Amino acid sequence: MLTALDRKHTVAPEGYSRWLIPPAALAVHLCIGQAYATSVYKNSFIAHFDASQTAIGIIFSIAIVMLGLSAAVGGTWVEANGPRKAMFVSACFWATGFLVAALGIGTEQLWLVYLGYGVIGGIGLGIGYISPVSTLIKWFPDRPGLATGLAIMGFGGGALIASPASRQLLSLYDDDYDPNVASSVADGRALVLLFVTLGIAYFLIMMLGVANIRVPAPGWRPAGWDPSTIKDKPLVTAANVSAANAIRTRAFWFLWVVLFCNVTAGIGILEQASPMIQDFFRTDGVSTVSVAAAGGFVGVLSLFNMAGRFVWSSTSDLAGRKPIYLLYLGVGMIMYLLLALIGDAATALFVVLAGVILSFYGGGFATVPAYLRDLFGTYQVGAIHGRLLTAWSAAGIAGPLIINGFLDAQGKPGSLTADAYRPALFTMVGVLAIGFIANLLIRPVPPRYHQQPGAKATPEKEAAA
151 to each of 123, 219, 250, 265, 409, how far by Cα in Å? Predict the structure, then answer.
């Protein structure tokens, strides 16, 4: 039965519509995008384990680290075995991570949550994230930004579903939990049942994507598309670069810095989103923003995150990848300055500023596969993408540590104000400035790194790399 997962059984028949591929990718990305909804139950975790914000934030950081590492290590395997097998493996790891984390919650062993959601679930995140991306680029060589935006917007929108669903499930499993009361936290039993429910539900949904994903037949191209037209665009190559050669180029490492900076600046706020909006509008120890409204804010950020992944990545097909990243990083610096200086003036202003920042954050993720395709071609672009996602791993540590480190020094959860966040926000401005400079330094890949016609990188060379 497992042979049905092999690449040779997933080649699309003649006449197969490429527009059926994005929904299959969305089935996976919407599920693993739950990682962005962790702030909804963060305070419940802090109370249940009697731990600091940093200790609980590490759960999210470990998951993102494992995402990048598993994507880097497994990228070549994903390319060789095809998206169906990769998506199935992702679903198994992702669901198992929830169940192991549930065991850790039930036994009050935080290290089991680190192992389950962080390590095991993080592996599922990495494999699931890259598994449909290279397939989409091969189905949409004429519009790679649109294609990757269609799928990766699902990852950004995952919290849009998971955030309200988690609140409702917690209130169902714990009669004393009130999502409308700021001081209310769910008990351990409710958290265990939440994680078991999510693990089972996500596995079943991801199987829909596994069943429907297809790869194009060798030599397939969209009707009426001429590959020679890409030669006229700056920074776009008609050649191919192997994953082993890609990591030897300056362009790869400058882009690594760009992604790291863009993600670091966004991920710290995203992980802290629900408590952050309550803290920004706290007077005399009481926040004017309810827990339910804060949960709604997480959902709004997910909308901006999701929309940015589609809108900005699609725009990059017209404007170019380099100019669109200058927008993400340059305007992002302005947004962070405004958030730090006047973000507490009005709730609507805070939501708009944070929303624009998260749209750039999401757009950066959706645009980077197309940026890689422009620089390195379609050959092994999935494996190259996996290696680049180690920047996400590093940012997954740096972003939350910067935010949580400053906050832990300022006071306890539930007593913080906007002043506590300003040092971290100013730090993020500097991080974005570094990324802005790195993007300016990206140049076309020199011909000596191009794959020669008829040559293939051997598995041994890939393993050595």
Answer: 19, 23, 28, 22, 39
